DNA sequence: GGAACGCTTCGGCCAAGAGCGAAGCATCCG
DNA sequence: CGGATGCTTCGCTCTTGGCCGAAGCGTTCC
């Protein structure tokens, strides 16, 4: 590891770091270094589920002891990757911003081909069946549900998607507010309204960005989906089964052959 | 650094890595680890310029000896971040794919606020003035020129941009082919046609994606811009000054007060 | 108040790996 | 063909930082 991201430790450097500001990746290295440890990466990946988790849960997720996790968390906070909120004797950790989630996605996109070409095939257990049907991906919906929604919206001309990018059409500008989503949104809006995000399990794009986040938030609010405890799996409720079809003309992916298995798995986890 | 990304080295792990496939960032860690070393990050940042560089040039860029650079390159190749082509006794290195560039951009976006809030102010030398005016950003144009082009295209309704995403409008579908760009492009097209990328120096979006790449390629072809040797700086030619205004109704940013300084700097580098 | 719990701090151990010098291969040039 | 150049391999040193056990601190519950 050597000097890590502390520039002027070895004076053997060919030229001072300050000279290289615009050109080098001083910032890249510091951030990537934080993500480059397996334990920290596991924590961050767990936080990609979108829920705030306690330090203890993260430790378990990463397979390390509480004290080790604690030191990692200090670094992640200092590095601005996660934010922490105290609540009683718990300490809730979440990703610091959507930009962090996007950076992580960028790295995953890079990693996933390698993962699949090697022998590391993913286990197709019942739990994963449920996750493949519907789950959160940071702050939006993924899995077959997420992909089906994106498909339906594009098919009906409410969005135009071009891998990675997406725009709401005039037709869409009517539908989303009717569903209870404010497209104008907060003026903070460094964040794209509509992005797509490649789905791990489906290998097809689903909706991300502000719109994707709003869609999940509103779906939870309406009780169309419910979070499974301690997991990023989403359960689709009967109300959701009607709603997604009625409002978005979404394909009923939950009726697919192996969806029953997924449903049982979610119930088993109650 | 400890076990880095070799999972089952310590048997102290709480649960086997295979269990964590969908959930953890095994892949994240491996990739981020490679980007997390300052020397490697500097090399990758240099390659973001879009040109293939030799191993020696990269060593100089990172401020390390040739042998150290060599070992880093082996890792980067193994990790699939860069690709190498032998040519005579040189070895040319380039980023392996646009996805790598995008992942790096994601990390830079995260890092840059931190960089500016700390005392690390960037030097405002003449060389950087030239870079701020126009430069390559992997395979597209950045700097004031890149931003001005994006602005002009959006202002004239040829694109609709929403930070991060972008779509070509019907009006644009006429202009780009006339300029010599095939919007349909190669059917490979996992790559988005139109993305935006946050400009380091301008803090505003410029065009990336397939369209951004095609715009740069065609501009080079027409001799509107020229690469400065051994740098990612672009020089705007007289033909370009006319062309960007005539074809895209772009603001003549090269006439701004400090542009003369930039021009001299480019000439000095001849 | 005392015990349980969640998390952090301290201290020590240890392996990974970043760095360089020197030697070894190739390739190109005169 | 001999020497220069570009890069890689080998052998080595040394720092970093990840890991845990034990102890400390603050909160909550009984």
Question: What would your notes on this structure say?
Answer:
- The structure is a homodimer of 270-residue chains.
- Chain A is an alpha+beta fold and 270 residues long.
- Chain A has two domains: 36-119, Winged helix-like DNA-binding domain superfamily/Winged helix DNA-binding domain (Arc Repressor Mutant, subunit A), CATH 1.10.10.10; 126-268, no CATH class.
- Helix content of chain A is 47%, strand content 16%.
- Chain A has eleven helices and eleven strands.
- Chain A has helices at residues 26-35, 38-47, 55-62, 66-78, 98-117, 126-133, 143-155, 170-179, 209-221, 238-248, 259-268; strands spanning 53-54, 82-87, 90-95, 135-137, 140-142, 159-162, 165-168, 195-198, 205-208, 225-227, 234-236.
- Chain A has a three-stranded antiparallel sheet. A two-stranded antiparallel sheet of chain A has the order 4-5.
- In chain A, a hairpin with a 2-residue loop joins strand 6 and strand 7 (165-168).
- The first copy, chain A, is globular, with a radius of gyration of 20 Å.
- Residues 1-23 and 114-126 of chain A have low confidence and may be disordered.
- At the A-B interface, helix 1, helix 2, helix 3, helix 5 and strand 7 of A face helix 1, helix 2, helix 3, helix 5 and strand 7 of B.
Overview features:
11 helices, DNA-binding, homodimer, 270 residues, alpha+beta, globular
Strand-helix topology:
The structure is a homodimer of 270-residue chains.
Chain A: H1 26-35, H2 38-47, E1 53-54, H3 55-62, H4 66-78, E2 82-87, E3 90-95, H5 98-117, H6 126-133, E4 135-137, E5 140-142, H7 143-155, E6 159-162, E7 165-168, H8 170-179, E8 195-198, E9 205-208, H9 209-221, E10 225-227, E11 234-236, H10 238-248, H11 259-268
Chain A binds a DNA duplex (30 and 30 nucleotides) through α4.
């Amino acid at each position: 590891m050597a000097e890590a991201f502390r520039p002027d430790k070895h004076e053997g450097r060919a030229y001072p770091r300050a000279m290289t500001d615009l050109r080098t990746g001083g910032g890249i290295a510091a951030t990537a270094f934080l993500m480059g440890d397996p334990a920290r990466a596991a924590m961050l990946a767990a936080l990609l589920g979108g829920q705030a988790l306690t330090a203890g849960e993260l430790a378990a997720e990463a397979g390390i002891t509480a004290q080790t996790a604690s030191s990692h968390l200090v670094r992640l906070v200092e590095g601005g990757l996660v934010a922490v909120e105290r609540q009683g004797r718990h300490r809730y950790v979440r990703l610091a911003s959507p930009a962090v989630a996007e950076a992580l996605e960028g790295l995953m996109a890079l990693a996933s081909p390698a993962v699949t070409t090697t022998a590391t095939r993913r286990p197709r257990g019942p739990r994963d069946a449920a996750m493949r049907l519907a789950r959160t991906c940071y702050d939006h919906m993924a899995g077959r549900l997420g992909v089906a929604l994106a498909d339906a919206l594009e098919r009906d001309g409410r969005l135009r998607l071009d891998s990675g990018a997406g725009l709401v059409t005039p037709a869409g500008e009517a539908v989303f507010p009717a569903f209870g989503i404010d497209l104008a949104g907060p003026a903070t809006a460094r964040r794209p309204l509509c992005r797509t995000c490649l789905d791990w399990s489906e290998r097809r794009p689903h909706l991300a960005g502000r719109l994707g986040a709003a869609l999940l938030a509103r779906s939870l609010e309406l009780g169309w989906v419910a979070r499974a405890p301690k997991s990023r799996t989403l359960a689709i409720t009967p109300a959701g089964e009607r709603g997604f079809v009625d409002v978005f003309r979404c394909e009923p992916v939950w009726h697919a052959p192996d969806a029953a298995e997924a449903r049982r798995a979610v119930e088993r986890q109650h």
